[in-house]
Amino acid sequence: MHGGPVLDLWHMSTRPAPSRITPLIEPRSLSYRSADWQQAMRDAITDVDTLFAELELPPEHKPAARRAAALFDLRVPRSYVARMRRGDIADPLLRQILPLDAEHADPPGFVDDAVGDQASAAGDGLLHKYYGRALLVTTGACAVHCRYCFRRHFDYSAQHAGGSHAEAALRRIAADPSIREVLLSGGDPLSLSNARLESLGDRLDAIEHVERLRLHTRTPAVMPERVDEAFLAWLARRRARVVVVVHVNHANELSDDVTAALRAMAASGATLLNQAVLLAGVNDSADALADLSLALFDAGVMPYYLHLLDRVRGTSHFEVSESRATTLMQEVAARLPGYLVPKLAREGAGDDAKSVLGVPARARHAVRG
Ligand SMILES: *Cc1c(COP(=O)(O)O)cnc(C)c1O
Ligand code: SF4
């Protein structure tokens, strides 16, 4: 009765740790100081001439870039530019920040407030559209200006939760026990100083019913210097569980320093998810989408949503049709494990959740023999 093999859980759990553990955090990501990212913010490229010179782009595209930059300012951190191919006007990272004449197009259906944000804002920067979750527009600033941005027309000055607005937003959160999760968004919450994040995090941690704190940020992908020691310490200190939704659209964005920054955030206790936007000319191929999921997984990030473009005026050239999106996702699903296939989603004004589009599997090809 005692002779059979037993599963010795005690010894399995007390086995000595292997003598060499691969460090999860590469030292470089931990060596950034606040001064580095504030400098990187100031060094961002904001004029067409500098961008074209840095990347040796064909000058015939300059006048159009200047015209469209008048609609929405050009802004791109240098470390993001460093990941673009020189001389390639079609580079998938460049496409996301390069102003184009197509932005002047004004087809019907593309409007200023495509997701109903202004309609649902009470004026204090808190958007409470979905049950249990409320979104705080913490700032209007971003490290980068993405041309497809759904907030390129958003009236930040009236609606962000900065200064005096913050108190009203925090009071509303404290008064509503149904709010279990607060999303810090913007703009980009990582444009805030560490001191401002500190006070916001402490105030939210003091509200007992806020169980989860979620950051929606594109900054680690475009300016990994922002993930400095103080921010990592901030992540580690939170009472609430922290979810960071990073916005990575293309595998080329995941350079070694970005990957190291993401891993350091995970090691500080944050759950990392990715939300991408399906963009024509950037990631609208099964190869690009599959590569993105695989590269995210390598960096410790799980794919969450792939959003269809919000129909915002000036962004119609980025649109991928719903039927093409579904076909692309079928191809991705046929290649990758289910957990690396993001949910294809669309946001509608007035809905009670984001709509997830069904992606029916294709019939398997008959195998010969
Ligand atoms: C997208 C969004 C959320 C979060 O939705 P999830 O489906 O939970 O990711 C919450 N509030 C607002 C206003 C949003 O736009
Ligand atoms: S980082 Fe996000 S909010 Fe900022 S410009 Fe890009 S898409 Fe818009």
TrEMBL record:
<dbReference type="GO" id="GO:0016853">
    <property type="term" value="F:isomerase activity"/>
</dbReference>
<keyword id="KW-0413">Isomerase</keyword>
<keyword id="KW-0004">4Fe-4S</keyword>
<dbReference type="InterPro" id="IPR007197">
    <property type="entry name" value="rSAM"/>
</dbReference>
<feature type="domain" description="Radical SAM core">
    <location>
        <begin position="128"/>
        <end position="340"/>
    </location>
</feature>
<feature type="modified residue" description="N6-(pyridoxal phosphate)lysine">
    <location>
        <position position="354"/>
    </location>
</feature>
<dbReference type="InterPro" id="IPR003739">
    <property type="entry name" value="Lys_aminomutase/Glu_NH3_mut"/>
</dbReference>
<protein>
    <recommendedName>
        <fullName>L-lysine 2,3-aminomutase</fullName>
    </recommendedName>
</protein>
<dbReference type="GO" id="GO:0046872">
    <property type="term" value="F:metal ion binding"/>
</dbReference>
<dbReference type="InterPro" id="IPR058240">
    <property type="entry name" value="rSAM_sf"/>
</dbReference>
<keyword id="KW-0949">S-adenosyl-L-methionine</keyword>
<comment type="similarity">
    <text>Belongs to the radical SAM superfamily. KamA family.</text>
</comment>
<feature type="binding site">
    <location>
        <position position="149"/>
    </location>
    <ligand>
        <name>[4Fe-4S] cluster</name>
    </ligand>
</feature>
<keyword id="KW-0408">Iron</keyword>
<dbReference type="Pfam" id="PF04055">
    <property type="entry name" value="Radical_SAM"/>
</dbReference>
<dbReference type="InterPro" id="IPR013785">
    <property type="entry name" value="Aldolase_TIM"/>
</dbReference>
<feature type="binding site">
    <location>
        <position position="142"/>
    </location>
    <ligand>
        <name>[4Fe-4S] cluster</name>
    </ligand>
</feature>
<keyword id="KW-0479">Metal-binding</keyword>
<keyword id="KW-0663">Pyridoxal phosphate</keyword>
<dbReference type="GO" id="GO:0051539">
    <property type="term" value="F:4 iron, 4 sulfur cluster binding"/>
</dbReference>
<keyword id="KW-0411">Iron-sulfur</keyword>
<feature type="binding site">
    <location>
        <position position="146"/>
    </location>
    <ligand>
        <name>[4Fe-4S] cluster</name>
    </ligand>
</feature>
<dbReference type="InterPro" id="IPR022462">
    <property type="entry name" value="EpmB"/>
</dbReference>
